[in-house]
Amino acid sequence: MAVATICEWAGVKTNGADASLILLHKLAKVAEFSISPFIAVMAAFTYGKAKYPKIAIGALIAHAVFELVAMHFGLVISVDSENIYTCGSLYFIYVIFFSASIVYCFASIISEEVSQHNRIDHVLLAALMFVIIGIGVQMIFPDIRIDYLCTAICSHFLYYHRNKMILQMDGLTRLLNRRCFEKDVERLKAPAVIVSMDVNDFKTLNDTYGHGEGDICLKEIGGVIREVFGRYGYCYRYGGDEFCVILKRRLNDTELLCKEFEKAVEESKSTVAHLSDVAVGYALFYKNDDVKDVLVKADEMMYKVKNRMKNRE
Q1: I need a surface site. Which of 76, 141, 240, 287 has the fewest CB within 10 A?
Q2: Helical packing angle, 147-168 and 91-117, nearest 10°
């Protein structure tokens, strides 16, 4: 971003200056136009899970080559004999490509956030609206040079957002953490279902096979929880070998989802050695219910299931 800003500054300073600076003016503009889409794509790699990275990098390189060739013919940007810069007939291609890079950036970030946490933070939406408005103003009023300022501020928003997500995330399972669960429970609105989960004999697994093997099992279970419940609510690692889910959709299918989860855990045993069973309990949260009582009911059901599993053994 700093390089693109310097190139824009150089372009402004050389615009209409001595004719001996025409080459410098052209190089500054082609460098600015070539680099600017890199900013959004690199942000996608940094703050999100960018899809088709090789295609994205290839498109950036192709665009840079296009800008270099187009400069020679004045197709995108043109600098006349008096060193005055004007937009060429194909300037719209740069606008489309730059806009596409921003869409790619935010699509990558939003896609990862939804897949990981099934939620979109308001800071992320504010950053998107901010950069769209800033670039829109730049396009309508080209003499008001705020595009890179808006991009820099947007990057700050994304950095803040990323740090916030890290603080809410459990590092091992990449589910939401206990602190996030407690905050969400405090502001939980009915109707909802709270699902409580506990890994059977996890201490024995750690003592027998080591904590590394235990971490592998927790990570696998976290992935299964996200896969089964993630589309319908929020998934948390409450602590140690305890997990929770807050369901906001398919509330009437909670029992079906729990059976689907148990089946998925059983199937995972074929690929993950020493994977333990997981006891699951749940309770409905209706209007006027005390959420603490609902949590107790979910835990009570979960411990009954745990005892039945032990008795079967």
Answers
A1: 287
A2: 10
Q: What is the DSSP letter of 48?
A: S
DSSP assignment letter at 283: E
Angle of the 2-14 helix axis to the 22-47 helix axis, nearest 10: 160
Helices (H) and strands (E) in the chain, counts: 11, 6
Q: Which is higher by pLDDT, 261 or 95?
A: 261
Cα distance between residue 226 and residue 16, in whole Å: 59
Tell me 90's DSSP state.
Answer: T
Length of the chain: 313
Among 226, 206, 208, 212, smallest CA distance to 268 is for 226
d(CA 213, CA 208): 9
Sheet of 192-199: strand order equals 233-239, 242-247, 192-199, 278-285
Find where tokens 């429970």 sit: 185
Is 136 in contact with 95 (CB distance < 8 Å)?
Answer: no
- Model confidence at 282, pLDDT cuts 50, 70, 90, reads very high
Q: Bridge partners of 254? A: none
For 151, the token pair is 């991009």
How far apart CA 234 and CA 118 sit, in angstroms, is: 6
Torsion angle of the four alpha carbons 39, 103, 57, 160, in this order, in degrees rounded to the nearest 10? 40
* Weakest mean pLDDT among 18-27, 216-225, 275-284: 18-27
User: Phi first, then psi: what are they for 289, rounded to 5°?
Assistant: -75, 150
Q: Residue 128 corresponds to which amino acid?
A: L
| Alpha-carbon gap, residue 271 to 259, rounded angstroms | 20
